[in-house]
Amino acid sequence: MTNDMGNKSVVLQDVRKSYGSLQVVHGIDLTIAEGEFVVFVGPSGCGKSTLLRMIAGLEDVTDGEIEIKGRLVTDLDPSERGIAMVFQSYALYPHMSVRDNLAFGLKMARNNAADIETRVKAASAILKIDHLLERRPGQLSGGQRQRVAIGRAIVRKPDVFLFDEPLSNLDAELRVSMRIEIARLHRELGNTMIYVTHDQTEAMTLADKIVVLRDGRVEQAGTPREIYEDPANTFVAGFIGSPRMNLLNAGWGEKGLVELAGARIASGLSPADRPAGAAVTLGLRPEHLKVASDQPGSLTATVDFSEYLGGTQYLYCQLADGQSLTVEHRSPISIAAGEEVSLLFDPSDCRLFDEGGKRLR
Ligand SMILES: Nc1ncnc2c1ncn2[C@@H]1O[C@H](COP(=O)(O)OP(=O)(O)OP(=O)(O)O)[C@@H](O)[C@H]1O
Fold first, then answer.
1. How many angstroms is it from 218 CA to the middle of ligand 1?
2. Is the ipTM of this complex over 0.90?
3. Domains defined along the chain, listed by start
């Protein structure tokens, strides 16, 4: 496996994209290391597919530069960039067998027949589709079609694999198993992979590095753990994690305390950071809130609604000041709507953000 994080595989320098007067990608700088699995994630319309398609050469870059393996590729055709792309729609040729679908690109590139056969064999073994080679796409399940689409990328031996929401057309169960397959493929091949999704579970489980995008800008780039535990702003904090992080309007108090719904909470931040009375946002993940049955908690809330999911119960609560808050309650003792609960949490699990949503440290 090539996983030399010291070597640069893909470098984006101030990459921009406009459609007419509408700018949709606003100057993105990003360095992707050799062998890294990078996931672009963000809400619909944030520009993740556009960015991937610019790396692929399927969209022109309005401004900025793209390098792949040390080569400037900004103005090169897709076929000259050393990339292979897997699409959500599979994009297979319906009238060709699986074998011919796999071989087609290589034939076009005038590879010799023996080499093509070796590559098709190797790819179909990796993807466990050897028994399907004579079938046509119409005779395959969705998961099998996606394997063929991935196989078509593998046979080309690209430097970089690009995936554009490859699992979105599959049902939930198949998505999980294909996700594991893609992780295995990355481990076996060791190539750089760039993957676009709006599914945060795919992002968290597949990525070495997650790039969270919003409105054509990078909000944060980091390991899944950094993004989850150390979000740079309220957008990232609320986007990654399910149920989402509670983001509560609070006031900065004396001596580094935060005032929320009549309670005073130790923030762990230096009092000099903020003027007393300034508005702050307190972030608390649902799994970090514990219902305290035998001791007074820091916060009191009323349960509006509860959802039982077996091992876990989600409690949708309201604070005295009317703000909503979700609690992930893991206990055999279930709690019903209407109950008043007192909540405990470790101050080190609190995240604080300023009025503009930027993290306070
Ligand atoms: N050909 C085009 N002409 C004009 N605007 C476009 C064009 N293609 C995309 N856009 C706009 O660019 C922005 C980014 O689109 P893009 O498809 O990259 O978003 P995305 O994050 O991949 O969204 P989704 O998750 O919905 O696929 C959107 O606002 C979109 O409307």
1. 16
2. yes
3. 8-239 (3.40.50.300), 246-360 (2.40.50.140)
